[in-house]
Design goal:
Length: about 140
């Protein structure tokens, strides 16, 4: 009984490093906080990073967030800019990977169209309701 308990503890201790890596507590990607050598590429990467929302903190761009997920996204943006990809293509790739919500500037199609049109439709509905109320009183 005692031997099996000791063997179980030994296996658990041996497995701990693999468990922590599997849960994503590994090192922050190298490019997350290091600027690109080319200033033009870094400027393009920064613009993309300010246009993307951190999916972990939800209210900040990935450029402003300290969350590990934002660091991973920053590293991905810098890597793709370094490979010569266009900012629009990177933004679209992030939207495909994380969903439309990741973009601070939703597209004018699908769900994005509803987001752009909803305020106008609500204003129009409010005006129609107010008009109906004023007509009844007179």
């Amino acid at each position: 009984m005692r031997r099996s308990l000791i063997l179980g503890y030994a296996l658990l201790i041996a497995a701990l490093p693999q468990l922590s890596v599997a849960q994503g507590s590994g090192p922050t990607p190298e490019l997350a906080n290091r600027q690109l050598a080319d200033p033009a590429q870094e400027k393009a990467a920064t613009q993309v990073m300010h246009a993307l929302r951190c999916i972990q903190c939800q209210g900040q761009s990935i450029a402003d967030s300290d969350a590990p997920m934002a660091a991973t996204m920053r590293a991905e943006v810098r890597q793709q800019i370094g490979e010569g990809k266009k900012p629009d293509a990177i933004r679209q790739w992030m939207i495909e990977r994380y969903g439309e919500w990741v973009s601070f500037e939703p597209d004018m199609k699908g769900t994005g169209l509803v987001l752009w049109a909803a305020p106008l439709l609500l204003l129009l509905l409010g005006l129609l309701m107010a008009r109906g109320l004023f007509r009844r009183k007179s």
